From TrEMBL:
Gene this protein is translated from: argG
GO MF annotation, one: ATP binding
Principal cellular location given in the protein's record: cytoplasm
Residues engaged in binding ATP: 7-15, 116
Keyword field: Amino-acid biosynthesis, Arginine biosynthesis, ATP-binding, Cytoplasm, Ligase, Nucleotide-binding
Residues annotated to bind L-citrulline: 86, 91, 122, 126, 175, 184, 260, 272
The name this protein goes by in its record: Argininosuccinate synthase
GO annotation (BP), single: argininosuccinate metabolic process
Quaternary organization: Homotetramer.
EC main group: ligase
Amino acid sequence: MEKIVLAYSGGLDTSVIIPWLKENYKNAEVIAVCGDVGQGDETSEVYEKALKSGASKCYIVDLKEEFVENYVWKLIKSSAKYEGKYLLGTSVARPLISKALVEVAEKEGAKYICHGATGKGNDQVRFELAIKALNPDIKIIAPWRVWDIKSREDAIDYAKKHNIEIGVTKKRPYSMDRNVLHLSHEGGDLENPANEPIKDLCLISQTPENAAETPEYVEIEFEKGVAVAINGKKMKALELLEYANNIAAKHGIGILDMVENRLVGMKSRGVYETPGGTLLMEAHTCLESLTLDRDTLSFKSHVAIKYSELLYDGLWFTPLKEALDEFIDSTQKTCTGIVKMKLYKGNCISVGMTSPYSLYSEDLATFGEDDIYNQADAEGFINLFGLPLKVNSMMKKKNGIK
């Protein structure tokens, strides 16, 4: 009997995959694996649901602490946002889930891993590249690329036909991905970029108009680029991110509606809720402005773009990503300090920061009188800095070039 390890969430797509695999791969044993990266209540019924749907076993692997410590914190240290906006909440979780799938497959002696990503999406690439990097001998099954189900409506009908309970309806047909960092919404009426999201779309965050009427001030402490305390309270990684989520969500922080360029070549529209991650990344970026010199900060901004593309494209387990991690970590040696943030109606604003490694000198920057900076020195600097411009202008004048 062949064993197939299925990346299982309990959602619509993976729920219908179990009976489909049993129908199309005769005598196959389907082993469901749910990587718990902070889906919340979604995992409470996953075990029984998987078995009722036809799985022989169901592993629920607690990945939350590892996810925050080894994946989310790296993301925040990198300052990576895909296309300058998206905090990569789905992208950064897929390598860890893939790692768990491979570990279960090796334990069970399974030759196949199956996922529920569509043939139009990015996740198929992320899952499969990670699996290839970790165990090239495992074969992939991707039902959405081969079966007769052509839409989420078809999948809903298939589920009803096979008596599979689902939380998706044709009235609210959104494809959602949730973890402790974010919640994404795609599909349905969002497929038309002209449509404003429905009022009750967000399930984590308050909308800015319904957010708290009073501003809240939050102090976030970092050590070597990693958040370690909020308002003076030291916390472990998972607890701190969850705490940041609760604070930021009530102020409408981190709601993003964007049209992005998928790896497979098309544009897609999604609404993302990333409250705590947005708060922490904004605070971290502010602290770097105090502790990094101009050239390093500038170069790191270019690295962030490449890092975001690697994560989005599923290239986590690659030599380049590992090399960039080394560079990023080297920039974080002095990224220690406290940042005070003001949260109000969707706005997340830095209002003060301190660091023992601050490169800011009030004595140098002051508009008042000082004894350190000789302003007359600027003339010689400008003459040398502008020398190439002067030479170029002289050449043009000599040759009559305007």
